[in-house]
Amino acid sequence: MPTPVLRDNSDGQTFPCSEKDAVAEEGNLLHAAPGAVEGAAAASTSAPGLGGGDLMGSSWWWRTRSLNAPSPVQQFGPCGRIMKNSAMVMQIQDPASQRLTWYKPPLTVLVIKKVSDASVLAPFVQLVDWLLQEKNMVVWVESAVLEDTLLNEDVRFKAIRNMLVTFKDGRDDLTDRIDFIVCLGGDGTLLYASLLFQQSVPPVMAFHLGSLGFLTPFRFDNFQEQLTSVLEGHAALTLRSRLRCVMQRKGERKHESKTQEQDPADADARPVANSILVLNEVVIDRGPSPYLSNIDLFLDGKYITSVQGDGLIVSTPTGSTAYAAAAGASMIHPSVPAIMVTPICPHSLSFRPIVVPAGVELKISVSPESRNTSWVSFDGRNRQELFHGDSLRVTTSIYPVPCICAQDQISDWFASLADGLHWNVRKRQKCLDELSDLTASGSEDTLDEIENMKLYDV
Q1: Does the annotation mark 187 as catalytic?
Q2: What is the C-alpha separation between 152 and 75, in angstroms, rounded?
Q3: What domains are defined for the chain?
Q4: Which of 94, 179, 187, 390 does the annotation list as catalytic?
Q5: For residues 383 and 363, is the Cβ–Cβ distance under 8 A?
Q6: Residue 331, pLDDT score
Q7: pTM, whole model, 2 decimals?
Q8: How far is CA 192 from CA 39, 217, 274, in A?
Q9: What is the pLDDT of residues 21-78, one digit of tens each?
C-alpha cells in the first residue's frame, strides 16, 4: 500500500501574541515548520500598526497558528525547575500542519456504502463507475454488496459488476491491500472502516448520505472535483485516535512484568487475538441484570474508584460526541490527546465525567462485591460478558483513523456540531433598541398586551 505521510503546512497564517508569551512560545518556534519563524518575522514587519523592526521589536509579535498549546517554561521562580531526563525529549506534530501526501499515486480504493438504503445505490454506482472508467483504479467492495437485488437490477451496474474486487468481512485480510477508502452513508460506515483495519488505516474520505453525518463532512454533489483534489494530495487530515482494548479472562496466564518492560508501540504493533481497536467507545454495562453495576476502575495499576450505576463509557475524543455526550460528558475536539471516562446513570450525584491523559492505561474489572456480571461492547459490536475475575485493559492505540477534512479540522468540527447536534441553537435575544416600545409603554400595559406585541419573535 502506498503509505501516506504528513507534511507541514507553512502557509504563513499568523495571529498576534503578547511579548510576555514569547518565552513560553520559544519551544514552539524551535520546532516550527521550515520558514515559520521567517514568516512570523515578515508578518511583524508588514502587519499594520507594528511599524517594522525585528521579531521582538514591538509589544506585539506574530507567530504561526498552531493547535498545540504553548510549550511551558522550564523554570519556576528563582530556584525551581523541571528535572531533565531523556523521557521529556519528544516531538509533537502540530495538528494544524497535518496534510496528506502520497509516496506514489494510489491505485486501489475500498468503497463502503450504507447497507439496506436504496437512496445510496445511485450515488454508489455513479462513484464506482467514475473510479473505474475515469481514474483507472482497482475498486474493492464487500461481497455482500453484490447480493443487493435492487443494485443488480441497475443496467449501469451490470456493465461494471465483474470489474469489482470483493472481500468478505471476517475472512479476508485487507492489510496493505487498500490505498484509499471512500465511505457513502452515515457515521456507521466510518466505524465499519475502523473495524476492518485493526492496524494501519488508509486515508478515509466520507460522504454524507446517511442520517446524522457527524463524521462525514463531504457532500456528494461535486464528488468528482473533491476526489480528484484528494487523489492529487490536496487535503487536510484529522487523525482520530482509537482505543486499544484487551480482554483478559480469569485463569489466563498473565504477563504483567513482560508487559511493563515492553514498548507500548510494540505491543500495539503485534495485537493479540482478544484485542480490538475502537473509534468511538467501549461500553461496560449491567446487561439484563436488575442490579447496579459494580465496576472497579484502575489507572496505571492504581485503584481509582468503583462505579456503581448502569455502567461506564470509555471514549475517544471522537466518541465524546456520541454515547458519552448523551450521558452528560463534554465534547472534545478529536485533535486533543485524551481519554474520556463517563459513568452511565451513577448512583452518586458527585460522580462527574473525567478526562485523563491519552498515555495512561485503564483497567476495568467486576468488583468482587458485585451482585452480577457486566457486559462489554466495542463501538456497538462484539458484545460479550465480563465475569468476576476478568479484566478489560484500555489505552490509546498508535493507529489512528486518518479522516480527510472538507475544509480544515476546526471548521469541519464546528460545522458538525451545528449541523448534526444543533449545538447552542436558540432564538436570539433582542437588543434594547428593539424593546423601545416596551420601555415607552406605561406601567398600565398588561401582560396580554405585551404578548400581543410579539416581542420575542425573531
Answers
A1: yes
A2: 69
A3: 108-236 (3.40.50.10330), 244-253+274-399 (2.60.200.30)
A4: 187
A5: no
A6: 96
A7: 0.78
A8: 42, 17, 18
A9: 443 333 333 333 333 333 333 333 333 333 334 443 444 434 446 888 777 787 887 7
